[in-house]
Amino acid sequence: MVDDHDTLVSSVRKGGPGDVESAVGILTEAFMAEESTRWLFPDDAERQECQQYYYLPLAGQVAADGGLLMVEDKAASLWMPVTGEGTSGPDFGAVDLPPALAAHTERLTSLLTLLGERHPRGQRYLHVSFMGVRPGDQGRGLGSALLRQGLAEADAAGLGVYLETASAGARALFERHGFQAACEPVRLPDGPDITTLWRPAAR
């Protein structure tokens, strides 16, 4: 899922394990008011803490694998290599969760199951699990800068790119970068639709 608009190019760098906390903070701010986040964590008082616990293991895994892209302390994206047999995100049913997050295990599991069912099969690709820009820095092209860098790396490796978004604005951004609808949207019970998008590797 992704959140941003584009107008201005800025420098992009690889983030490492030391950048995980910053990346989690960026994503937490970027998605605080996003509709699917509000569905997942409906309590306003708990949403910030829940998001931080939610993003932390995934951001740590991606950073260790070299898939964290950042622009200063303003924007971050998580690019995860996938074998084509489904994603390997955190299994929230198999670990002891903080009380705030444990209360949402059912919705977390439902969301990850629904998203996983839509993923491409039988091929290797990159999954942009999250891309976000701090609210005060949105509209400056930081999301597009992250996207261009990540797509260039994907093309160099001969990999397609898959992602999901619940934002109409983000979908328009991705379509400008060559993405097309991959399959039927993910329809959350009493929640927003999440669009799945695919961009094949450039030849």
Describe the structure.
α1 packs across α3 (44-64). This protein has 203 residues and is an alpha+beta fold. It has one domain (2-199): Gcn5-related N-acetyltransferase (GNAT) (Aminopeptidase, 3-Layer(aba) Sandwich), CATH 3.40.630. Mean pLDDT is 87; it is low at 4-10 and 91-95. Strands 1, 2, 3, 4, 5, 6, 7, 8 and 9 form a nine-stranded mixed β-sheet that branches. It is built from seven helices and nine strands. The two termini are 26 Å apart. Keywords: Acyltransferase, Transferase. One of its GO terms (molecular function) is mycothiol synthase activity. InterPro entries: Acyl_CoA_acyltransferase, GNAT_dom, Trichothecene_AcTrans.
What are the key terms here?
single chain; 203 residues; alpha+beta; Aminopeptidase; nine-stranded mixed sheet; 9 strands
Q: Uncertain spans, ≥5 residues at pLDDT below 50?
A: 4-10, 91-95
- Our measurement of the CA-to-CA distance between the termini, rounded to an integer number of angstroms, reads 26 Å
Number of helices: 7
- Hey, roughly how much beta strand do the residues contain? 15-25%
Q: Give the overall silhouette.
A: globular
Major β-sheet, in short?
9 strands, mixed
The CATH class turns out to be: Alpha Beta
Global Rg: 16 Å
Q: Identify the CATH homologous superfamily.
A: Gcn5-related N-acetyltransferase (GNAT)
Helix content: 25-40%
How many E strands? 9
Quickly give the structural class: alpha+beta
* CATH-derived architecture: 3-Layer(aba) Sandwich
Could you please say which CATH topology applies here? Aminopeptidase
Pfam families: Acetyltransf_1 (PF00583)
Organism: Actinoalloteichus hoggarensis
GO molecular function, one term: mycothiol synthase activity
Protein name: Mycothiol acetyltransferase
